[in-house]
Amino acid sequence: MKEIVEVIAKALVDRPEAVEVSEKEDERQTLIELHVAEDDMGKVIGKQGRIAKAMRTLVKAAATREEKKVTVEIV
Prior knowledge:
By secondary structure, this protein is α+β, with helices and mostly antiparallel strands. The chain has one domain (2-74): 2-Layer Sandwich (GMP Synthetase, Chain A, domain 3). The chain contains three helices and three strands. A three-stranded mixed beta sheet has the order 1-2-3. A hairpin with a 4-residue loop joins strand 1 and strand 2 (30-35). The radius of gyration is 12 Å and the shape is globular. The two termini are 17 Å apart.
């Protein structure tokens, strides 16, 4: 899941070297945190959050295949 978020984010931003993705797992769910440069934040979120929502939808679809619950946060 982490790799999916990283590939999408790096394709969207102007400074792909500033993209950092961390993954935290516990018994019930996995939390993926996406850190980008402040000036690239709007590109990752998109108008009215459409890009962020699409990214979360892709990750949830991939997680469903593995029977996991995944949450994506953009920090």
